[in-house]
Design a protein that fits this description.
With 449 residues, the chain is mainly alpha-helical. It has helices spanning 2-10, 29-42, 44-55, 82-85, 87-90, 111-121, 123-128, 131-149, 163-166, 175-178, 205-220, 235-254, 260-277, 314-325, 360-372, 376-392, 413-424, 433-436; strands at 27-28, 67-68, 159-160, 232-233, 278-279, 284-285, 288-289, 358-359, 398-399, 406-407. The protein has 18 helices and 10 strands.
Length: 449
């Protein structure tokens, strides 16, 4: 645990944790949520501050921006930089902060789940600092924004309007929707990521040109939702919203308010997830392109993340486990860690970002999902591989799914944080829905004190 703690201490700024000192020198939204989950074992106070710092940059419309910029970092250290997003001016109508510079897009809503787990790490400290009463209204506003502004397909699910919002930037699931987007000219932007990583491991210039075009158009619309060239319902994004909605219900119960309506909303979202994105022939969930209405026939790991939902129909949970253990994802077989994309798929690349490499945050979610559905032996195997690979890779950003070879940045914060979390739970132990922050259908009460 000492090595993981040193990574987090080295990336701590005094109020938040950067994912990587070199490659990602600002605060990232879903990174901070995963980091807080691990930090709670090292310092519950720092974990609370991590989330509070992020939430302090929330926009008036409820969105939590995917980057909160550190004003002391030079503009050329990361692209797109604050002068690209122009949040205070372009986001004025959406309530962007006037004094804090942020991006204008979002990332997966893991935050309520993180807040609940951080509370559980030291309830006494949490209550003394009024942690939950202060973050609950912000988290509720965040969920309202997603549910009210981002149901672009009209079926109850949230849509992402940029690949960066889903977090799996260059996943093959985005190839077809992105093909409609005219890329920005290569000379119009300067990629800082290539200064710190191998170009063979990163998204291509064509991908980046399309990312820049989408972000530019969204900015120039004043960050108004619903009129862009890219809108996709993603199973992982929606599953994490559902898990966080259950967690928000438990936070409400802790604060003395009924959580029944939130649990019921999460159940409705789960039903919509199954109805709109489940593909029984593939044995997993697929993305839906909102603009053409069809499912996207790419088997990415996002389609397995709904395993974190304990209220999934048992036959669907069992099918997800079979898919995980099959030749496409290799759990317990050829793969050391679960890859980000189908091992047998046409676009598989074992080193290129989200087109094949294994990522620790996704494997952490799958380990939790396996355990929630009673697959303790598989969960223990995956946990052991994660802990071993994290240390051997120098807590890499992501790794070759076959060999565990390090890719991307080293000393990556969520890898270290989630390793701490895995080491804190005994092997072979159960993980109750209350501990995970999700909903046990047999228990409609809050966490017992």
């Amino acid at each position: 645990m000492g090595k993981a703690a040193r990574v987090l201490n080295g990336n701590w700024t005094g109020s938040s944790t950067v994912p990587s000192r070199s490659l990602y020198p600002h605060q990232w939204s879903w990174d901070s949520a995963f980091i807080a989950i691990g930090l709670r074992h090292l310092s519950p106070l720092r974990a609370q501050v991590e989330l509070e710092t992020l939430l302090a940059a929330q926009w008036g419309d409820g969105r939590i921006p995917h980057i909160v910029f550190n004003p002391s970092v030079p503009l050329d250290a990361y692209f797109p930089s604050p002068d690209f997003w122009r949040s205070a001016k372009a986001g004025r109508a959406a309530g962007a902060p006037r004094t804090t510079q942020t991006s204008g897009i979002v990332q997966p809503p893991v935050h309520a789940l993180a807040a609940w787990l951080v509370h559980l790490a030291d309830p006494g400290l949490s209550r003394a600092r009024s942690f939950l009463p202060r973050v609950y209204p912000k988290l509720a506003a965040w969920h309202r924004y997603l549910l009210h502004r981002r149901d672009l397909g009209g079926g109850g699910l949230v849509s992402v309007v940029h690949p960066w919002e889903q977090g799996m930037d260059n996943a093959p699931s985005w190839d077809a929707p992105l093909s409609r987007v005219t890329p920005a000219a290569r000379h119009s932007f300067q990629r800082a990521d290539l200064d710190h990583g191998d170009a063979e491991d990163r998204p291509t210039d064509l991908d980046y040109g399309r990312y820049v075009r989408l972000a530019t158009d969204y900015r120039d619309r004043g960050y108004a939702d619903g009129a862009g060239e890219f809108a996709v319902e993603d199973p992982a994004f929606n599953a994490l919203l559902i898990a966080s909605e259950h967690a928000l219900a438990r936070i409400a119960a802790e604060l003395g308010a009924p959580g029944t309506a939130r649990h019921a909303r999460a159940e409705r979202l789960t039903a919509a997830l199954v109805e709109r994105l489940w593909d029984p022939a593939e044995g997993m969930f697929l993305c839906r392109d909102v603009l053409d209405g069809g499912l996207i026939p790419e088997r990415g790991v996002a389609g397995l993340v709904p395993l974190v939902l304990p209220a999934l129909p048992p036959d669907i949970a069992a099918a997800l486990v079979r898919t995980l253990r099959g030749p496409r994802f290799g759990l317990g077989g050829v793969a050391r860690l679960v890859p980000s994309y189908d091992l047998t798929g046409h676009a598989f690349d074992r080193h290129r970002y989200w087109r094949g490499p294994a990522w620790f945050n996704v494997n952490w979610l799958l380990e939790r999902g396996l355990r929630l559905h009673g697959e303790h032996a598989q969960a223990d195997t995956l946990r052991g591989s994660m802990v071993r690979t994290a240390e051997e890779s120098g807590f890499a950003e992501y790794v070759d799914p076959y060999t565990g070879e390090a890719c991307g940045a080293r000393g990556f914060s969520w890898t270290a944080a989630l390793t701490l979390d895995l080491l804190s739970e005994p092997f072979g132990g159960g993980l109750s829905p209350a501990r995970f922050g999700t909903f046990d259908p047999s228990d409609r009460g809050g966490e017992r004190r």
